[in-house]
Amino acid sequence: MNFREKYNIVPYKALNSRQRENYNFHKVSATLADYGFNSLRLNDDWQGADFIAVHISGEDMIKVQLKGRFTINLKYKGKDIYIAFIENEKIKIYYHDDALNMIPENIENSESWIRDGLYTWGKTPKIYDDIISVLN
């Protein structure tokens, strides 16, 4: 029996939260490999990062936090973190502090931002298009 006869593609929605994080790591790291990065998964969120990606040039190393969607969180401020997520089957990545510096006034004044210093969007707002890179 060949592989495809034995195994079926598992829908993302069928995965639990830990399985989704693993899935997202592998999808994002595979895409970063196309750009010359080797990704190293971390056992704990070291300086806010889920993984480190090292470029083949040996000159660049980025810290990446995986998210399920576009997110701004004060706990990542000043930590030199990239946020990566999958939206509409596209791998997207952005430098967190760039997004933080662009936070709209209505969000900055929202109850959840004031209370938690955290805001997420189900769909990435257009105002962030210039700072987000779509990798695939």
Keywords:
6-stranded mixed beta sheet, alpha+beta, 8 strands, two-stranded antiparallel ribbon, 136 residues
Model description:
This protein is α+β, with helices and mostly antiparallel strands. It has helices spanning 3-6, 17-34, 96-100, 105-108, 111-116; strands at 37-46, 49-55, 61-66, 71-73, 81-87, 90-95, 118-120, 133-134. It has a single domain (8-134), classed as 3-Layer(aba) Sandwich (Trna Endonuclease, Chain: A, domain 1). The strands form two sheets. A six-stranded mixed β-sheet has the order 1-2-3-5-6-8. Strands 4-7 form a two-stranded antiparallel ribbon. The longest helix has 18 residues, at 17-34. The mean pLDDT is 95.
Helix count equals: 5
- The ordered string of helix (H) and strand (E) elements is HHEEEEEEHHHEE
Enumerate the spans where pLDDT stays under 50 for 5 or more consecutive residues.
Answer: none
Query: Main beta sheet, described?
Result: 6 strands, mixed
User: How helix-rich are the residues, as a percent range?
Assistant: 25-40%
Mean pLDDT: 95
- What is the spatial order of strands in the main beta sheet? 1-2-3-5-6-8
**Content of β-strand:** 25-35%
Number of strands: 8
End-to-end separation in angstroms reads 32 Å
- CATH architecture identity: 3-Layer(aba) Sandwich
From the alpha-carbon coordinates, what is the Rg to the nearest angstrom?
16 Å
For the record, the count of structural domains works out to 1
* CATH-defined fold name: Trna Endonuclease, Chain: A, domain 1
The computed structural class is: alpha+beta
The rough form would be described as globular
Please write the CATH class name: Alpha Beta
